[in-house]
Amino acid sequence: MGEDFQETAGDQDEQIIVAARQVACHACGRGIGISGKQPFALFPCPHCQARLTVPGKIGEFLLLKELGRGSLGATYRAFDRHLSRQAAVKVVRRTVAAHPQQVSAFLQEAKAQASLDHHNIVQIYSLHREQERPYIVMEYLGDGSLSDRVQSGPLDEPAALQIGLALAEALGAAASAGLLHGDIRPGNVLFEQDTPKLVDFGLARFLTPSPQLAASLPYMAPERLAGQPADVRGDIYSLGATLFHVLSGSPPFAPEAAADVQARQQHPAPSILKVRPVHPATAVLVDAMLAGDPQRRPQDYDALLALMRQTLQRLAGQFVPTPATAAPAVRVAKPRPVVRKKKADLRLLLLFLILLLLGVALVIGILFFAWSMNRTPPTTWEP
């Protein structure tokens, strides 16, 4: 360990994280000794009383704040001391790391995602191990998740569909590289300003019973719940469930019903029209993505992207609310015909026809005169 850091005892899953011995206060700038404190503990600056956090450390990365915790482990906002940039670090739980086959598969999935270069996929920077515990260093995005954005209410249709289109393009690029996502939901869509990015590709196979798994169930395709092999149509279903959520404000299934495999297979997701009066084209798109039978969904991302772009074009042309809950129709006044212009055009056409007829008559007259002169015999004079 570096001279500024020491081992700390703590959660069994976090014993590989160490705490700094000294920090500088962000308010007064004075150095503070924090030997013996736990990583991420809060304490007041003894000089100015500003609230400070004990940074943790793993490898060469300072861990500044825990961002979330799930089946695989915890994710932290971190600082890369070598490259002087922010990053996100996901540390795999000890219980997961205890299974070498799972760790190997996990690292293969992470390497596959690292090979992807798409502006709507979170970039993985590097993979590391600390005391046989793998951790992933990836792009840090500080503008919240799609789940955060829908907490205040549904998004408008164009914004929701543009997000869906961007995610479908990213999923299509990943599928071309042989990579499925497996856990598409609002919480796995992060933002860099207004650019959505998918995170955690291929990690769904490592989920164990946890709040994170429970959060994934309302978006999971029924065939996935039944244990059938995953394919792109399962991801298309999950993307459709995510669109349903951002358009309506809630997922297509309540959490208590989401895990009922038999009910999910017998009763498909409700139509989006039952919860929000969206454009008919939007309803067709979302309902197709949420079809209970995988054969009735778009079969690949080319088909899905074509349907999404067509929906956006129709949405841009004219908004047509559904008849059941539509607001009173707004009549669009038709432009008056420009009578004067039509009359002027008619006069010009008439004048052209008259001149054409006169020209034809003149040509015929000249030809007839020439023909007559050729047939008249010469006149003779007698003395």
Structure, described:
The structure is a single chain. With 383 residues, the protein is of the alpha+beta class. It has two domains: 5-138, Phosphorylase Kinase, domain 1, CATH 3.30.200; 146-317, Transferase(Phosphotransferase), domain 1. The chain is 38% helix and 17% strand. The protein has twelve helices and 14 strands. The protein has helices at residues 94-97, 100-114, 146-149, 157-176, 211-216, 222-225, 232-248, 255-258, 261-266, 280-289, 301-317, 339-375; strands spanning 5-7, 18-20, 22-24, 31-33, 42-44, 51-53, 56-58, 61-69, 73-80, 85-92, 124-130, 133-138, 189-192, 195-198. Helix 7 packs across helix 10 and helix 10 (280-289) packs antiparallel against helix 11. The longest helix is centred in the last third of the chain and has 37 residues, at 339-375.
Helices, strands, pairings?
Blueprint: E1 5-7, E2 18-20, E3 22-24, E4 31-33, E5 42-44, E6 51-53, E7 56-58, E8 61-69, E9 73-80, E10 85-92, H1 94-97, H2 100-114, E11 124-130, E12 133-138, H3 146-149, H4 157-176, E13 189-192, E14 195-198, H5 211-216, H6 222-225, H7 232-248, H8 255-258, H9 261-266, H10 280-289, H11 301-317, H12 339-375
Antiparallel strand pairs: 1-2, 2-7, 3-4, 5-6, 7-8, 8-9, 9-10, 10-12, 11-12, 13-14
Helix pairs in contact: 4-7, 4-11, 7-10, 10-11
